[in-house]
Each structure stands twice: as C-alpha cells, then as structure tokens.
Amino acid sequence: MVVLCGVINEMKAVTYLMDVNKKDPFNSIYIENRDPFDIGESNRKWIILKGKGGTCYNTYGEWEFEPMPSNRDDDFLKRCRYTFDEAVEIASKLT
C-alpha cells in the first residue's frame, strides 16, 4: 500500500494505492477518503476505486459507476462506502 495524497492537517492520508496494474496502470486499485476531516477518524468513510475513471466497488461485489456528488443517494453511499479497515481488507483481495 502506497500513500498517494496526504493532508498537512494531522498528516492524514486521503488516497492509498493498493495495487499497480502493470499491464494497465489506469486500472490500478485505490482506496480514497471521501469525507471531511473534521468528522472524526471513526466516522470517516472510504471508497474502493478502479483507476481514476469513476468506477467503484460495491458491497454486492460488483464495479459500478460513481455518479456526481449531487446524484449520490443514500443507497449508493451504503453500497459503496466502507470503514478504512473494511476498504483495505476488500481491496487487498481484489489485487
């Protein structure tokens, strides 16, 4: 796991590269924080991404398109957001 992006405020990482797809680096697996830093570490949610093209992994074990923030409903957030530990465990199995 490689930290790709960090924040100076308490040195919190926001994006981790879980696996580099050597044949197609644009389809590498990432986990990324999508919550503001002031909500507290235990409440922060993470998304599992395939590349940087807007495809995320859901709780059904499928890749799905991530809509624009204004179009993300509660069902989408329940399907595609994880705790940090859950995201690391799941993404590790996808690599």
Task: Please tell me about this protein's structure.
It is a single chain. The protein has 95 residues and is of the alpha+beta class. The chain has one domain (2-94). 19% of the residues lie in helices and 29% in strands. It contains 2 helices and 6 strands, in the order ββββββαα. The protein has a 6-stranded antiparallel β-sheet with strand order 1-2-3-4-5-6, covered by helices on one side. The radius of gyration is 13 Å and the shape is globular. The N and C termini lie close together (11 Å). Mean pLDDT is 79; it is low at 1-9.
Q: Count the helices. How many?
A: 2
Strands, count: 6
Radius of gyration: 13 Å
**Helix share bin:** 10-25%
Report the sheet with the most strands, covering strand number, pairing sense and barrel closure.
6 strands, antiparallel
Instruction: Please provide the ordered H/E string of secondary-structure elements.
Output: EEEEEEHH
Uncertain spans, ≥5 residues at pLDDT below 50? 1-9
Structural class by secondary-structure content = alpha+beta
Strand content: 25-35%
Number of domains: 1
The coarse silhouette is globular
**Strand line-up in the sheet with most strands:** 1-2-3-4-5-6
Distance between the termini: 11 Å
Briefly summarize what is shown.
With 95 residues, the protein is α+β, with helices and mostly antiparallel strands. The chain contains 2 helices and 6 strands, in the order E-E-E-E-E-E-H-H.
Question: Strands, helices and their partners?
Answer:
Layout: E1 2-6, E2 13-19, E3 29-33, E4 46-50, E5 55-57, E6 63-65, H1 74-80, H2 84-94
Antiparallel strand pairs: 1-2, 2-3, 3-4, 4-5, 5-6
